[in-house]
Amino acid sequence: MLPREEELRALICEVGRRVYARGYVASNDGNISVRLDDHHLLATPKSVSKGFMTPDMMVVTDMQGRKVSGHRDASTELKMHLAVYEMRPDVRAVVHAHPPLSTGFAVAGVPLNKSSLAEIIFSLGSVPIAEYATPSTQELPDAVKKYITAHDGLLLANHGALTAGQDLMNAYYKMETMEHFAQITLVARQLGGENLISRQEVDRLQGLRDFYGIKSPAPICTDPALAGSDGATCQFVDAPSSDGPRIVPPAGPGPGPARGAGPGGGDGGEIRLTYRELAALIADAVRQVTRDV
Ligand SMILES: [Zn+2]
Predict the structure, then answer these.
(1) 46 plus 74 within the same structural domain
(2) Please, is 218 exposed, middle or buried when counting C-beta atoms within 10 Å of its C-beta (0-12, 13-18, 19+)?
(3) DSSP 131-151
(4) Span from the CA of 186 to the centroid of ligand 1 (angstroms)
(5) What range defines the domain where residue 118 resides?
(6) Are residues 152 and 100 in the same domain?
(7) How far is the CA of 224 from the centre of ligand 1 (A)?
(8) How far is the CA of 49 from the centre of ligand 1 (A)?
(9) Per residue in 15-68, pLDDT tens?
(10) How many structural domains is the chain composed of?
(11) How far is the CA of 238 from the centre of ligand 1 (A)?
């Protein structure tokens, strides 16, 4: 049964509080929307802090963004949400915010598309950058349309981030996941760079994603040409053909996973796991991801 309008109004307020409390927006930034039914959206009003909204402030619009009811007006950025709903009938909620780490990547022009975390490969796949467009103009929804066909999370160049989900909490959690990914990526780069998961392992993770039925708008691909720049049909994940060099040299034999079985206790930095250890790691990652999907 679909949640009733009252519940959705209250839930938008809750998501707004979380977005604001976590510093994903400042002042009156950001906007949140959810499908009420096939023809209507419930959206946050403009010029209000997302941390201090009440259920009566919400605006009901049609799928062209025209106001149907409400004392306030929807944000002009609602155009971006409308573009998502138009391209993705499966999406029921959209969150747009300016989380500082993700937005930092968007400002630097660095997409979040490396094969560094198994959980991200399971969930978001990759996060591309939609080209810069002046906020509130039609250019911005057009840039979003290009990539949203294959992605649930986008960076908006020199602006912020956007996530889409099967319900409000799902869209919000994807924003959390993206920001967490950005934070981990930044720390890894400060420490000398990521050790990327190999292409072979990315393919295996993709297989597990399919096996567990984790909802994703498009498959992962490792060839950027396949991801295309217009109407993307897959999620480009940058993965090396073999494991990259590791920062921490392997220790000699000891407790835990067998390490560096080669001569001198090192084998090109390889860490070997038993099948049982690997299965436990994957099961744990799947549990983490499926918890919120
Ligand atoms: Zn914005």
Answers:
(1) yes
(2) middle
(3) PP--TTSTHHHHHHHHHHTT-
(4) 22
(5) 5-190
(6) yes
(7) 27
(8) 13
(9) 999 999 999 999 999 999 999 999 999 999 999 999 999 999 999 999 999 999
(10) 2
(11) 27
